[in-house]
Amino acid sequence: MNIINGHVAILVESIQNTLDRVSKYNYPIGEIEEFESEGTKEVYLGDDNKLGQLLLIEAIGDGPYKKAFMKRGEGLHHICLLVDDVENYVYNLSGSGWLLNPISVKTMKESDTAWLSRACVPTLIEVYQPDENLDSTAANSFISSIELPESSEKVGLLKKLGADYIIPSVDSKIWLTIEGNRIQLNDLLN
Predict the structure, then answer these.
(1) By residue range, what is the domain housing residue 165?
(2) Whole-angstrom Cα distance, residue 69 to residue 130?
(3) How far apart (Å, rounded) are the C-alpha atoms in residues 38 and 65?
(4) What contacts 17, CB < 8 A, 6 or more positions away?
(5) Residue 123's domain is classified under what CATH number?
(6) Given phi > 0 = left and psi -120 to 50 = alpha, else beta, which region is 164?
(7) What is the pLDDT of residue 119?
(8) How far apart are the C-alpha atoms of 74 and 69, rounded to whole Å?
(9) Which residues of the chain carry a pLDDT beneath 50?
(10) Number of domain units in the chain
(11) Contact of 104 with 128, CB cutoff 8 Å
(12) pTM beyond 0.90, yes or no
């Protein structure tokens, strides 16, 4: 099964302030869009012709993103995995230690999307089945690797996702490799 980096979503206090801070990296910036139904303002960073873009999300209304921001502040919100068959992918994770968010019962039917979590992992995992065939590789991703802290009690949990670009961090920090440069997430936000 193909498992491709769709995007990495960062929840920020202000998209404009974050864009000002990351301007030194000269990343391509997409169009800022508002999604009233989600209560968000969003913008993608990265080349349009590449997968694995960086998605900045600002909570501008009530909803799950506002709740997450109020609880945890700025930081990694989710990693989107693109898969060939979302139901089969989730089924194969059974017994792996990953938990299926209850909202997935609804989102799998409505949008071929499932949400996974684990208290010891500092992000949600969005699993999405796009309409088009997946034939790309991580080699043409804007973000080519994501390093996450891994709990000593749940060693191997990240590997069970089957996404070779999501790896355990050696120093308990979150790192992104963007266009070949390894950058600590906190450096992007500060």
Answers:
(1) 3-189
(2) 27
(3) 8
(4) none
(5) 3.10.180.10
(6) alpha
(7) 86
(8) 6
(9) 137-138
(10) 1
(11) no
(12) yes
